[in-house]
């Protein structure tokens, strides 16, 4: 954890965020994005602004027969229900939020625009690299 001390989330977050448009059907989302990318979390954007998140959990709640008629926007978790953080949020504080609220990633916003995701996976990778570099 020493590697996180004093670092903002901007230093660690994933800036390569997969995004999808809200009007996309769940059928197309699953086929074109979810299955092809191996990613588990996608930002839903409208007019370049984050409007929510969609994960396999939201897709699973809809019967497969209804995927072609159901939009991503209809099942996404809206931005108003998401915990978000800013670029300058201390990484330690973001990790505490994730632990306390039982979430795996936090969207990082700047002026309402999605800048990236701060996730447990990226924290672990960062700490592993930090540890390896400092042990030499």
What features would you describe in this structure?
With 136 residues, the protein is of the alpha/beta class. It has a single domain (2-134), classed as CBS-domain, CATH 3.10.580.10. 35% of the residues lie in helices and 23% in strands. A 4-stranded mixed beta sheet has the order 1-2-3-4. Strands 5-6-7 form a 3-stranded mixed beta sheet.
Pick out its properties.
136 residues; alpha/beta; four-stranded mixed beta sheet; three-stranded mixed beta sheet; elongated
| Total DSSP E strands | 7
Q: Compute the gyration radius: what is it?
A: 16 Å
Order of helices and strands: EHEEHHEEHEEH
Shape: elongated
Architecture per CATH nomenclature, i.e. the level-2 architecture: Roll
Task: Give a nutshell description of this structure.
This protein has helices spanning 26-37, 56-60, 72-75, 91-101, 120-134; strands spanning 19-21, 42-46, 49-54, 77-78, 85-86, 105-110, 113-119. Helices cover 35% and strands 23% of the residues.
Write the layout of secondary structure elements.
Elements: E1 19-21, H1 26-37, E2 42-46, E3 49-54, H2 56-60, H3 72-75, E4 77-78, E5 85-86, H4 91-101, E6 105-110, E7 113-119, H5 120-134
Parallel strand pairs: 1-2, 5-6
Antiparallel strand pairs: 2-3, 3-4, 6-7
